[in-house]
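Re: weekly structure request thread

Next one in the queue (241 aa):
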Amino acid sequence: MTKNTVLPQPTAGYDDLPRLMALMTGDEKHGPAATSTLDALWVLYDRVLRVTPETAEADGRDRFLLSKGHGPMAYYAVLTAKGFLPADLLPGFGSYDSPLGHHPDRTLLPGVEIGSGSLGHGLPLAVGTALGLRARGLYGRPDRDPRVWVLVGDAELDEGSNHEALAFAGAAGVDNLHTVVVDNASATHALPGGIAARFAAAGWSTVTVDGRDHEALHAAFTAPHPGRPHAVVARVEPAYG
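Done, posted below.
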């Protein structure tokens, strides 16, 4: 199956997202986990990310990497609302011949930057992507200043690969890198405030906000952080209990 061509699609708004998500069915859609990411994803694509269906392959675009493995249903809904995907793809979610897999595939869908799924690999890939943009001379130019965003779940931070990545990025001052941690209290070893403290200890700029408050999310996403990578911890309702 080849990657779908980027074509102009009708766009929708935030209030349309529940309807779009309802079009996706199946036993493994991970609805609650996906819904925890919905507001952060919407604010990013609606107000922050500099990428459109028409610029999905442009060198100067912002890159968004979905690492949270149970988040694709919300991701597909937001991509559809923003015109990257046609809505008629959604009912096929997870089926054998659908490009909408249980983990997004960059070779099949416009706007998708990585093939995600392996727990904890998104942040390391984001660090490499940010460094790659610098090595290619794309970052820091007046006409091209692409930024890298990665969304991870709090439980992913139990994986050691993430700690290696965040330690390196902070020490190297990779300031075109941004991490959104959706915190639904599902991490094994988490302490109150511990996620932000871990990033701060590694030299990152950090902000913790209500993950359902769009204005707070936008302010956190756009906070200046010269010389440092930036982490936004978006607190949402607990996954259990």
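The beta strands are 63-66, 148-153, 177-183, 205-210, 230-235. The helical segments are 17-22, 31-35, 38-48, 72-81, 122-135, 160-172, 194-201, 214-221.
Next request, please.
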